[in-house]
Write a sequence for this structure.
């Protein structure tokens, strides 16, 4: 561990511990982000294994139009994201039955966790749910995010150019919400979610040594968080993020095909065999190989 990284971690743990003591968990602050352990993962030692976080982007109706399973390997610095199209049509268990996966969270956290675990073979350790307001707040602390996108489009008044773009928070939100002009609508949008996540990580790491930046970002996140995790676990999760090497990011969107139901509703039928193969490839090292993913990020 370098001296610079040690100092960064110490700053983080002090900020997290003090903030959580000053602002009690739950009910005191408006919750724009919920962060919780899955199946007793509170006791997991983040530093000794791969950590899996299911990240959901929640719209104003409570549906989750962004669904990304994020793996972090704090030993190697590798990280990966497995994107699940929001219209994926699958068995969500009782009492929901067959439905799009973006309604799973409306029926309880365990419903969406079980669905993702069944698809990929990977059961997340933690669940993070972020709404529009929190999304813009966090990006506002990180600063402008630069990314490269394969096609241009216009979304909510924001013009996205093919190639490199730099987004302010409101522009980034417009970028990740768009899908209608894409040939592969949900698949392309999910890949764009991954591109933005990678860009945000690079932006965070590029500023991590700026005086006061880490503290301000941590406090901004905590101001919006409702969590049942201890300060130590929050610190260990933040530590896992700081170890990610932006050159060792991989990502894949689960493949499938669009289908129209007899009711006229449009859904996505996933290739569940491929989903299991992608999950198995990533499970041990948080890396998805190009041979496994038919269309890697």
């Amino acid at each position: 561990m370098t001296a610079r990284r040690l100092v960064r971690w110490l700053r983080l743990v002090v900020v997290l511990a003090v903030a959580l003591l000053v602002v009690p968990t739950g009910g005191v602050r408006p919750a724009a982000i919920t962060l919780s352990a899955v199946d007793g993962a509170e006791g997991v030692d983040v530093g000794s294994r791969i950590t899996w976080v299911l990240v959901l982007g929640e719209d104003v109706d409570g549906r989750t139009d962004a669904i990304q399973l994020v793996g972090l390997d704090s030993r190697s610095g590798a990280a990966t994201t497995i994107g699940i199209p929001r219209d994926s049509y699958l068995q969500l268990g009782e009492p929901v039955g067959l439905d799009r996966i973006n309604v799973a969270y409306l029926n309880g956290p365990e419903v969406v966790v079980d669905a993702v675990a069944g698809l990929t073979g990977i059961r997340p350790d933690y669940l993070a749910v972020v709404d529009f307001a929190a999304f813009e707040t966090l990006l506002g602390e990180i600063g402008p995010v630069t990314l490269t996108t394969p096609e241009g489009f216009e979304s909510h008044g924001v013009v996205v150019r093919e190639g490199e773009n730099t987004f302010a928070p409101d522009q980034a939100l417009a970028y990740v919400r768009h899908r209608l002009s894409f040939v592969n609508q949900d698949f392309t949008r999910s890949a764009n979610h991954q591109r933005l996540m990678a860009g945000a990580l690079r932006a965070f790491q590029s500023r991590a040594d700026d005086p006061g930046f880490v503290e301000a970002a941590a406090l901004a996140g905590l101001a919006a968080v409702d969590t049942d995790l201890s300060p130590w676990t929050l610190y260990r999760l933040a530590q896992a993020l700081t170890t990610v090497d932006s050159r060792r990011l991989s990502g894949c969107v689960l493949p499938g095909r669009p289908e129209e139901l007899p009711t006229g509703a449009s859904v996505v039928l996933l290739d569940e065999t491929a989903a299991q193969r992608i999950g198995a490839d990533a499970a041990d090292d948080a890396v998805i190989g190009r041979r496994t993913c038919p269309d890697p990020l």
